[in-house]
Specification:
The protein is an alpha+beta fold. It has helices spanning 13-23, 74-85, 92-99, 155-161, 173-178, and strands at residues 10-11, 28-48, 52-69, 106-121, 145-152, 181-188, 208-220, 232-242.
C-alpha cells in the first residue's frame, strides 16, 4: 500500500538516527558471485621417487564474497518510527492522560493545538516577540534562533492565546479551561526543513498552529503559578513536526 507523503516542517535527524539505531540492527547483505572470466590456471608439478613425473593443469572458478550494509534513508527511518509509536489516541493530551502516572519520558506520535509564545536567540536569550500586540511579520532568523510553542493550560495560552482561537481551529477555548496538562516545545531554526513563513505570514505572539508531532514527552517540575497545584507541566522534545 502506498502511503501519503509527509512534508516535514521540522526534523531532528540526529535524534531519529540515534533512536532508530537503538531499536534496529544494521541490515547486512552478503553477496556471492562467480565468473568464468576470473578462472585461473593451476599447475601442479609432482615427482614421485624420481620415477613418475606428472603435470596436472586445471581451472578454478574465482568466487567473490562481499558484505555490504544496506543504507536506510532518514525519511524511511522516520516513517518506520512513526508507525512504531503511533497509537489509536492521536491527541497529545489524551496520550499523556493514558500514560499517567509516569516519571520518565515517553515517545509518542500525536497532535495538539499550539500557540507561538516566543522567538529568541539561543545564545543571548533575547526575545524577538516582546509583546502580544507587536506584528513581527518580518523576523530575521538564523541558526541560533529558537521558536517556542505552548499548548494547554499555560499562563501565556490562557492569558493571550485563547482569544485568538476561531471557529475553524481544531480546539475551542473550553479545552484550555478543562485540561490540566501544560505543554512547551522548542524548535531550533537550524532543524526547520520548511520555512516557517510558508506556514504563516503573521509571526506574532499568539499565532496558532495545529501540528502533528513525533517526539519525547518529558515531565517537568516547573510551575507557572505559585498557587498552581493541579496543572501538570511537560516539555516536548520534537523529533519531527508536520501539518
Amino acid at each position: 500500500m502506498v502511503k501519503d507523503a509527509i512534508v516535514f516542517i521540522y526534523r531532528d535527524d540526529y535524534c531519529i538516527e540515534t533512536l532508530y539505531n537503538q531499536i534496529y540492527d544494521e541490515v547486512v547483505e552478503t553477496i556471492l558471485s562467480s565468473s568464468d572470466k576470473s578462472e585461473i590456471d593451476a599447475s601442479i608439478n609432482a615427482g614421485f621417487l624420481k620415477i613418475v613425473n606428472a603435470e596436472t593443469s586445471g581451472k578454478i572458478n574465482n568466487i567473490n564474497t562481499e558484505q555490504r550494509k544496506i543504507v536506510t534513508s532518514i525519511d524511511r527511518k522516520t516513517r518506520i518510527l512513526l508507525d512504531l509509536y503511533k497509537t489509536d489516541s492521536m491527541l497529545i493530551d489524551d496520550i499523556i492522560n493514558a500514560s499517567l502516572p509516569f516519571k520518565e519520558s515517553i515517545y509518542f506520535v500525536g497532535m495538539a493545538s499550539f500557540f507561538l509564545t516566543k522567538i529568541y536567540d539561543n545564545k543571548t536569550g533575547e526575545s524577538i516577540l516582546p509583546n502580544v500586540q507587536q506584528n513581527t511579520s518580518y523576523v530575521s532568523l538564523n541558526e541560533n534562533t529558537m521558536i517556542e510553542l505552548e499548548a494547554g493550560n499555560t499562563d501565556l495560552v490562557k492569558k493571550y492565546c485563547v482569544n485568538y482561537v476561531d471557529s475553524k481551529d481544531y480546539f475551542d477555548a473550553d479545552f484550555y479551561k478543562e485540561t490540566k496538562n501544560a505543554l512547551r516545545i522548542n524548535m531550533s531554526n537550524a532543524k526547520i526543513k520548511k520555512n516557517i513563513r510558508h506556514i504563516t505570514h503573521d509571526m506574532k505572539l499568539g499565532k496558532h498552529f495545529n501540528f502533528y508531532v513525533f517526539g519525547e514527552i518529558i515531565p517537568s517540575a516547573r510551575k507557572d503559578r505559585k498557587t498552581d497545584n493541579d496543572t501538570r507541566y511537560f516539555i516536548i522534545n520534537p523529533f519531527a513536526i508536520w501539518q
